Structure formats: structure tokens, C-alpha cells
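== Item description ==
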Amino acid sequence: MLLYGLLGFAAGLPFYMFSTVLALRLQAHGVALTVLGFFAWVQLLPTLKFVWAPLLDRYDIPGFGRYWGRRRGWIMLAQLGIFTAMIAMAATSTDASLAVTALFAVLLAFWTTTLEIAADAWRIELYPTQDQQGPIVAANLWGYRSAMVAAGSGALLIADSGGWAFAYLLIAAAAFLPFPILVAMRSHEPARSGGRTSALVTGLVASVVILALACAVTAAVGWVVLDVAARAGIDANSNVTPWVLGLCMLPFVAMAVMLPRIRRAPADAGIRTSTVLGPYVDFFWRYSYGAILLMVFVSLYRMGDVLALNLSKPMIKGLGYSLSQIGRADSLVALAASMIGVGLGGFLVTRWPMAWTLTIGAVVAALGNFGFVWLAHQRVDEAILYVATAGDQFGNGFAGAVFVVYLSMLVNPRYPGAQYAFLTGFAFLLPRLLAGAGGAMVGAIGYDGFFLLSGVLSLAAILFVPALSRIVPRKEDS
């Protein structure tokens, strides 16, 4: 539990730095609200982690993997990636070029997600039952949310006095702390334990090459995307919401088209034995048409939290609160409320049926979003901000803990890394696509309408809960 608290802390520190903190930084530099919404699409990287998750199940990092094992080797590489990306974001903290800012934000999101993939796969391998998952998920989320508070409130307080570059540098140093601890850990596999120093040197050299290649590929892809967007006439005044909604429908259409073929596929069929596609085809083979219902449910369940994340702080700042006031609210108040929510959710999921805990999680998460509407109509008072922040973080923490356990129970233990990455990635695909259009939505319906809508969408997930208990996976046929 202590180890997973540490891993959660390492993954949580960078998250706010490419989401909420970045949104406030861009707002401070005069970036338009619609463009702020576009930057929410950086958070799409975690939703696409199923693309590279099979690599983490199959390959070792040279050097690191030989001594520390596959999972820890990938975690160490990801730590180096997080550190270098945040140093780069500190060096470009004036946001003189939004394209460069986006490049390093994407790299930070990529390596943060890679860290989560490796840690989640290890967790599912070590703790396969619901009773075991509750405590370990709570420990992991305590560390994760502690880090988010440290990064969110700490970065804002530091930025208010020392500037954005200094804030990113300090958070980068804090995010790197687990790396020497991992290096000092012994190998749990005696066959791999020879040559710690040579393994470390080899791993560092390999990491430099991998990080450089990742940066080059990201820059090239980003250049193509920006060029296509410019040719399509997309700018700060564009209403991209209809296009986003259309894109959101494509995964559901693709699943419906492929399911009949997947259901008939024998155990030795190429699509089921494929290294790349096999883990994902297995999920749809096991759940059949119930998989579509599961995907709709998981897409809606965290909708409110994701939509609120990117624009809640700019709204609060616009109400007249200072960065220091927002930072103080996001420190002890948010940390205490979040940890209580995570702890209660992790406890109840070991005692109550999953349907009840999922329902309660959706309700408290929606109430947290409705709290922002209430806040907008109150006088500027730091105590009132604390109440709204506590409600939001409690609901977020409770729903998050329950949701992680639920998704972990859907996974086939044969493919823990790939299938959990797919489920969590798909769960946030629709919310994060819509979050990118959040600025345009606020322009059309206002902040009140935006947060009311996000809360109602979270509540809509409850409609699916009664049907979930009737979805039973098929037994293996080989």
C-alpha cells in the first residue's frame, strides 16, 4: 500500500501541470477561452493509451528491465520523461509559441500516462479480487490526489509569487523523487539481479534515445495536425462542438459493425491471437453486445468531473478570486475532502454491492458540479470557495475510487495492462473530446448552463446501473 501510494503520488503530480495549472497559465497570458478549450485535448493522451499499452505488456526497457523487471523498468523510463517534459515547460513558460507549449504538454501527458499503465497492470496482477482492490486502489488514489493538490495548489501559490517557470521547476523536482527510490530497490527476481550499475547506465542511455525519438515523433505529428487545422480554417472563433460530437459517435459505430464477427471468432482466429488487437478483441468476445452498454456507461460516469476540470478554475478566477486564494482552497481543503471521499469509496466497495456504490458515486459527483453554479451566485468569499471545493473534491474522490475498482473487475487477468488501459482510455474519450469544446459551449450557454449540463450527464449514468448486473462475461473456450 505504501508503494502504491508512492506510485500514485508520482503520477498525480504532473497531471494538473498539463490541465488545470496550464489553463490558468494560458489565461494569464491572454489566451482566448476557445483556445483554452482546445488545450483540454492534451488530456486525450490518457484516453488513447490502449494504442501503446500492449508494448508495456510485451517488452522490457533495455537495462532497467534486466534488473528491476518489466513493470518497474517502464515506470523508471516514464519518470525520466515526466521530469524532462516539465523542465521544458518551465523553459517555455512565457507561452510565446502556443505550438511549443502544446508539444511539451503532450509529452508530459504521454509519459504520465505511461507511468499509469505500468502501475495499473502491476496492481491488477498482484491483487485480482474486489476485496483486495478496494484498499490498494484507495492507497493509490490517496497518493495521486495528494500529489494533485500539491501540484495544483502548490504551483499556484508559487506562481503567484515566483512566476510560472519556478513553479514548474519545483514540481518537476518533486515528481522526480521516486526515481532514486526505485533505483535503490532490490530486484525481486534473483535471475535479473546481476549488475545493478551496468543496468542503470544502459537504461539511462536507452532512455535518452527513447525520449528523443518520442519528442521528434510528437513534433512531426503536431506539425501535421496544426497544418490541417489551419487549412480547415479552425481558429479561436471556430465552433467545433458539432464535429466533436460526430467524432464521439465513431467508436460506437465501429464496435457495432465488428461485434458479429468477433462473437463468431474461434480461439485460434487471428484477431484473437494478435499481440496488438488480441487483448481488445478478447474484451468484446467475452462481453458480446453487453460491451456496447458497458462502453456507454463508462463514458458517462466521469463526464461531469472531466468537463469541470479544465474550466472550473478559469471560472473561479473570473469571479474575482486570486491565484493564492484558489491555491489555498486546492490545498488542505481539497486534500482532506478528496481523501475522505477516496477512503469512503474504497471502504464501501468492499462492503456493499457495486451497483449501490456506483449510484452513490454518480450522485455525489454531480452535486460537486452543481456546487460551481451555486458558487457563481455568491459573494467573493474564500470560505464559500472552500465549501464548493470540498464538495467537488469529495464527490470526485468517492466516484473515482469506486470506478477504478469496477473497471478492474471487468479486466481479463490474462491482459491486465492492455485491457485496463483500453477501459480507462475509452471511459475518458467522450468527456475529454467534449472538454476540448468546453470554451465554445460556455460561450453559447454560459458557465451556469455548462456546469448544470455536466452534472446532469453524470447523473444519466445511473440509468444504466440496473442493466450492468445482468452482463456476465463468456467463459474461455480454450
The longest helix spans residues 196-231. The domain at 2-468 is CATH 1.20.1250.20 (Growth Hormone; Chain: A;). The chain has a mean pLDDT of 83.
